[in-house]
Amino acid sequence: MTINIHNAEIVLSAVSQAQYPADALPEIAMAGRSNVGKSSFINGLLNRKNLARTSSKPGKTQQLNFYNIDDQLRFVDVPGYGYAKVSKTERAKWGKMIEEYLTSRENLRAVVSLVDMRHEPTADDVQMYEFLKYYDLPVIVVATKSDKIPRGKWNKQESVIKKRLKFDSSDTFIPFSAITKDGVEKAWEAILTAADLS
Ligand SMILES: Nc1nc2c(ncn2[C@@H]2O[C@H](COP(=O)(O)OP(=O)(O)OP(=O)(O)O)[C@@H](O)[C@H]2O)c(=O)[nH]1
Ligand SMILES: [Mg+2]
After folding, report:
1. Domain enclosing residue 119, as ranges
2. Among residues 79, 91, 19, which one has the least CA distance to residue 55?
3. Structural domains of the chain, count
4. Protein residue closest via CA to atom 27 of ligand 1
5. Which atom in ligand 1 lies closest to the alpha carbon of residue 43?
6. Residue 148 placed within a domain
7. Would 70 be classed as within a structural domain?
8. pLDDT tens digits along 155-180
9. Coarse DSSP helix, strand, coil percentages of the chain, rounded to the nearest 5 percent
10. Residue 119's CATH number
11. What is the atom index within ligand 1 of the atom nearest the CA of 144?
12. What is the pLDDT of residues 53-84, one digit of tens each?
């Protein structure tokens, strides 16, 4: 099966279940700390500059944004966690919204969990991964901003990240850069496999 990645558009933004698309298309969600590069990852995969809005200011994405890809697959851009300047009430709302989506969405085939390749995963990153594993969701760990560290350090960083996450060997780990596009093919392969489209 082939997918035309150029045929991609935002479908809708949602804050609650009633607003999710009603069909049965497989969905892949992108979760990660605010500013880690979720929207840039979506743009990189779809070869678009700004389909998913990116910003150097954290907290840009505040709703679940659903992207239709060639009527075969959807990406779901999830608002980032760990943004300090968000109020307690906002954080609780975020928690409820993301938990509701991740734990009840039948279309969901896998979650791309994005972490910054330069650093050890944060406590929030670990908590997210544990949460996903608790709900038996397949996870594709994407280590972003690989362009910011020399290749000679990639293996070491991969070990640091996997160790801290207690990485499940049935999951996939992919170094990624939205700048150099490194990891795009591997990411597509993992996503299409998870969505049963390969
Ligand atoms: N060098 C480099 N910068 C990146 C990469 N990916 C994202 N960035 C930059 O990191 C910043 C945040 O990227 P976004 O894609 O908006 O991050 P996000 O995770 O969607 O952020 P929120 O929507 O706030 O949760 C932007 O300034 C991007 O240009 C990458 O692979 N390499
Ligand atoms: Mg974003």
Report:
1. 8-194
2. 79
3. 1
4. 56
5. 15
6. yes
7. yes
8. 999 999 999 999 999 999 999 999 99
9. 35, 25, 40
10. 3.40.50.300
11. 31
12. 777 766 666 789 999 999 999 999 998 887 76
